[in-house]
Amino acid sequence: MNKIVFATNNLHKLEEIRQIMDGFYEVLSLTDIGCYEEIVEDADTLDGNAQIKADFVTNRYHMDCFADDSGLEVEALNGAPGVYSARYAGEHCTYQDNVDKLLAALDGVQNRKAAFRTVIALNLQGQTYHFEGRCDGMIATEQRGEGGFGYDPVFQPDGYDKTFSELGVEVKNKISHRGKATQKLISFLQNYVK
Ligand code: ITT
């Protein structure tokens, strides 16, 4: 099977992508290739951060690699937390801290519209490609469900009356920002291999 590195430290994301790519590509993690250094994501766009992560692996390990960067953009907060979604509530905050801060920021706010966006940067045989995915929805007034990670307990995708946490990983992968970007990546890789 073809091998490709997914430059992430987020085990939830790794698990999601492995499930989507199952049987098609063997997806190696940073741990699998012995990369334990911290990759500093200091770009101010999702594209920039995804590229930083993919380049780090390709330049040091000379391997094909993809990386994603995702963010939650809330309309009433002018697109925040966006590229800063992971550290919205502070440098070493937990997912719960971020959810609490978001619910507090939207307390009493009528406009709950939000979108998750993902950009995947792929370095393949000396070329770079970007793929995007977007999932529109709204921020619930309270958290619901146990599954998923990050803002999943408060993100309700359009067309559903459940949060990502309640919907579970299989449904989420079909409709999510990362799922859509990953489908584009997979279609590209399938045509590339042929
Ligand atoms: P990397 O190691 O890949 O950088 P990360 O946890 O920093 O992992 P991202 O930069 O892609 O992940 O995403 C930033 C934050 O956005 C992440 O920590 C979550 O809080 C949130 N997020 C991203 N995708 C999400 C999803 O599918 N569901 C819920 N929250 C998500």
Instruction: State the CATH architecture.
Output: Alpha-Beta Complex
The number of strands is 7
Q: Specify the CATH class.
A: Alpha Beta
Outline the low-pLDDT stretches.
none
Tally the helices: what do you get?
6
Identify every distinct bound molecule in the structure, by name, code or SMILES: inosine 5'-triphosphate
The name CATH uses for the topology is: Maf protein
**Major β-sheet, in short?**
7 strands, mixed
The structural domain count equals: 1
Global shape = globular
Please report which band the strand proportion falls in: under 5%, 5-15%, 15-25%, 25-35%, 35-45% or over 45%: 25-35%
Q: What is the average per-residue confidence, as pLDDT, rounded to a whole number?
A: 94
Instruction: Give the CA-CA distance, first to last residue.
Output: 14 Å
> Helical amount among residues, as a percent range?
25-40%
What does this structure look like?
- With 194 residues, the chain is α/β, with parallel strands linked by helices.
- The chain has one domain: Maf protein.
- 34% of the residues lie in helices and 25% in strands.
- It has helices at 11-21, 46-61, 95-105, 164-167, 169-175, 177-193, and strands at 2-6, 25-28, 65-74, 81-82, 113-124, 127-139, 155-157.
- It is globular.
- The structure holds inosine 5'-triphosphate.
